[in-house]
Amino acid sequence: MPVDKMVDLSGRQLRRLPLHICSFRELVKLYLSDNNLNHLPPELEQLQNLQILALDFNNFKALPLVVCTLKQLCILYLGNNKLCSLPLELRLLQNLKTLWIESNCLQRLPEVVCELSLLKTLHAGSNALRALPAQLRRLQELRTIWLSGNLLSEFPPVLLDMPFLEVIDVDRNSIRFFPSLAHLPGLKLVIYDHNPCRNAPKVAKGVRRVGRWSEETPEPRKRSGAVIEITKDFFPFPLLPCEDNSQFTVEMKT
Q1: What's a GO cellular component annotated to this UniProt protein (predicted)?
Q2: SS3 90
């Protein structure tokens, strides 16, 4: 048994988890990132003290159900696999506070995630999400949600009903309009860059924005309607004359 109660087998090109690891019943942290794993042995259930499990950068097409028996898990890394769904048994992990499911094949956020009542951080970027379930508002402990690189065409309405959120990341989606976020008292950071939007989200004072117009007011400037007549002699470079030889005019915005 390692003295620090941690085993790190990341980047070992493993295809199977060595069974003797499952005999370390006091193990708290197990890192299996960046291997070739696509299943886990049932003996993993013996690790009932495990709090951190890293399975990211493997070949899992489905989450092994044995993971859902590890009820002390606080942090679960599942990113960069081939997951299209999550099992209903995930609801058994009621101590889970951080869930990483980015860079998988999820077309919708599994509703079972909404049953993880203590979840504080959700990383679900780089999937194919088009919307979020309304049940997400149940997660009143959720503070950060990362949704960059998905297929969202509108800002998820459910996030407007989650005043406890501190960080919202919707970078690299297809959102064309942002509603006001000024009513979210807990918000500290919103990342909305690389969207085809025509406005920046309104936020309360002190909230940091990352994206177009982030340093400007999202309100469109009013036009004064003033028109100034400008002749061709005004410009230091030649201009093609109008067909009717009229003067050039420009509308000034203030």
Answers
A1: cytoplasm
A2: helix
Write down the pTM of the prediction. Answer: 0.84
Query: Residues 6 or more apart from 183 whose CB is under 8 A from it?
Result: 160, 163, 204
Residues of the chain with pLDDT > 90, as a percent, come to: 81
pLDDT of residue 201: 96
CA dist., res. 169 & res. 147, Å (int): 6
* Cβ atoms < 10 Å from Cβ of 82: 13
- Provide the b/e sequence for 16-49 (b: ≥16 CB within 10 Å): ebeeebbebeebbbbbbbbbebeebeeebebbee
Please give the structure tokens belonging to residue 248.
């050039």
Give dist(CA 24, CA 14) in Å, integer: 19
Q: Which amino acid is at 230?
A: I
Report the distance separating Cα 224 and Cα 227, nearest Å: 9
- Tokens for 240, please give them: 């093609």
- Distance CA(93)–CA(76), nearest Å, equals 10
Parallel/antiparallel/unpaired status of strands 227-230 and 98-100: unpaired
Q: In angstroms, rounded to a whole number, what is the distance separating the alpha carbons of residues 9 and 39? A: 15
Span 8-21, mean pLDDT? 97
What per-residue confidence (pLDDT) applies to 231? 41
Please give the pLDDT value at position 215: 73
3-state SS string over 178-217? CCCCCCCCCCCEEECCCCCCCCCCCCCCCCEEECCCCCCC
- Separation CA 248–CA 223 (nearest Å): 20
CB atoms within 10 A of CB 55: 24
DSSP class of residue 222?
Answer: P
